[in-house]
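User: My collaborator sent over this chain with a note saying "see what the structure looks like." That's all I know about it. Can you take a look?
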Amino acid sequence: MHYASTSDIKELMRSPNTDGQAISIFLPTHRISLPHNLKADRVRMKNAIRDVVATLEQMKYNDSDIKRHVEKLHDLHANKEFWSKRDNGLAIYATMDKLAYFDLPLEIEYSVHVNGDFIISPLLAGRADAYQYHVLELNFTQPRYFLGSQAGLEQALSDELPADLKTALHIDEYQTRRQHSTSPGGDRDAHSHGHGGRKDKQINDKDRYLRLVDKVLWENALKNSNLPLIIAADVDTASLFRERSRYRYIHSAVLEGNYQRANKDTLAEKTWEIMSDSIMEEENMFQRMLDRAKRRDGQQLLVNGAHIRKAARQGKIATLAISLIYKTYDSVVRRMEQRFKIALPSSARQLMNIEDSAREVIQTGGEVKALLHANGNNNANYVQAITRG
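Assistant: Without extra context I'll predict from the sequence alone. Here is the result:
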């Protein structure tokens, strides 16, 4: 997967150095590369190229310039391997000379935009770190690691994670040596510890094993990550791991129980419940912050795009909220599962209001945060900003 970094977004914000147009294409895609999924994704791409051509024809571009605009898009469409490794959504940016693409962790509604600047707001709304997470199904027999999103879990590090506790720590060999050392005539100190000694050793073995699991995860998945890690385990084991782990972003909620025999879909369903609750909790906290800004001295809540952009140019905007996320419900195994998707406003004026406000705020060092849009409320604010205190 290839997600947009802050520097990628800032690069797209610069006016394209080209005589042609800036093309922005947004497509829903599939994580699971089944033949019918790949076909559907490539058909959408073919339709997008057709829509780009139609728009350029309306702009009176000649055939030669139109071909230059879409040549790299055709190459991408023809690349079957490319379409087999996508996430839930895809943003494609093209000019006559360049092409860039970025995966989105959320589904996005199909849209094509041909104008002087790229459309960046879906990249701001679809931050990967807001909708992805790690999962550790933790036990002392065969721990499992997954990378998760609302589309499901992908298992990784199967070969790197330690096997069962005895094998990983070579305990059989250790016990054999220990028995020899406590035989008559040998060092009998261990016998004096009785059952307490064996219990202490078991605790020490678990401690070593959990540190080994943490080491593998840190070196292969967590070292450069800030995604939440959800642990599926009994409470005591999860607590022991939390105390020993060097990872700072372990989720406060634990998926309690024994999930050694649970399939990937069951784990995906239960861990996404935890994540979606966290997303909604963060959303509610930010909404309360917006409400407080209406009443707090030294801070102001702005909802007018022109006022937001003026304040941003003066360096007064602390946080801009853009409402592009919609909450949907999909039936999964006969239950209703909460999911999220990105949808741009149908009004070109509203979209440009979001784009212009976001650009001004980013350029002056402010933060841009995506919020849920009030479904069905056409009068809901697409942009809200909190000024600096």
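A starting point for your reply to your collaborator: The first strand starts at residue 22 and ends at 28.
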